[in-house]
TrEMBL record:
Highest taxon listed in the record's lineage: Bacteria
Family matches, as PANTHER family: BLR4730 PROTEIN (PTHR43586:SF24), CYSTEINE DESULFURASE (PTHR43586)
Organism phylogeny: Bacteria, Pseudomonadati, Bacteroidota, Sphingobacteriia, Sphingobacteriales
Name this protein carries in UniProt: Aminotransferase class V
Domain Aminotransferase class V: 24-385
Amino acid sequence: MNSINIQELNKYRADTSGCSCLVHFNNAGASLPPDVVIDTVVDYLKEEATYGGYETEYKNIARIEGVYQLIADLIGANKDEVAIFENASAAWGTAFKGLALADGDEIITCEQEYVTNIVGMADARKRGVKVTVITNDEHGNFPLAELENAITPNTKLIAVTHIPSSGGGILPINDIGKVANKHQVLYMIDACQTAGQYPIDVTAIGCDILSATGRKYLRAPRGTGFLFVKRSVQDRLSPVLKDFLAAGNVSLDGYNLRNDARRFELYEKSRALTLGLGKAIEYALAIGLERIWHRVQYLADITRSALNSIPGITVHDMGNEKCGIVTFSVNGIDSMLVRDKLVENGVNVSFGGQQATPIYMDKHQLKGIVRASLHYYNTEAEIAAMCDLLRRINN
């Protein structure tokens, strides 16, 4: 369903300078930000340069505080359950390491887990933690019955990536949440490709921890991310690094941790980028995440259909429900070369290597794929232009 009319689309594209000079299908890498996001960041930096860093922060403290509420509104959380990070890897790693999993504990994850998360799990295995991978069925769907059967009294965490970096499928995170809650197992979601593309409600999902980045579908600047930690589980995680933002009543005898999720973040970060993140969320919320999601699905469906009609192209996305990430390969041509040819002709796509989602790629014997990730500001004409280029590349 195309949920955005032509007048709205033209406005969103006019709001985005990058749309005037290229076709950007690398939104799963980093979206083109609206001009208002860039203006917010630059204006704040200029104010810092002419007024002073601390003075500018104090002057804008209400706006900076408001970003926490905007994140909470985006994901259906409370403001005191949100921490701001420079990236999602730091957010995810802070939460994961804070669980202090030990010898004999068990983690359950999925086949499309992102490489950075796998690094954390590999470190946990060195401490004697067991990691069980639930692989998708032959249709690309996550088997809930296998998840249920994999849970034991030692299972301490279910940690999954909702939308993978190198595939178009989607995990049923609400249903996984029901299983986790039934067995009283902590539930952690990597929502890097979700935030800004797909509506998130942490209460409906039933998750305890969720991490996300700003640069992808949220259309925020690079160097932004956030972490959600449910209020009732915050005391079960130990902050990995602490400074005076996290601690009060500090002396050599000890300190008191603050009583919200900001105990997990550090004080020093870019206030300009934080405000850029907030402005990007504000922009997305004004459009509506349901409308964005329907538009993205609509464009991705058109793209898959068009690619499937081109001889020699294989689309690799599986599962009953698919997202805005479309992955494919051109028979006989290295996917990195295909990416380079498209970029040379003004169409930004990404190369998905084996290292990004190693379990998924190994299972499907893929060395690399081309990734075209659609957003609501893309057009049918841009899809047609990419397909025309692919026909020429393939001849």
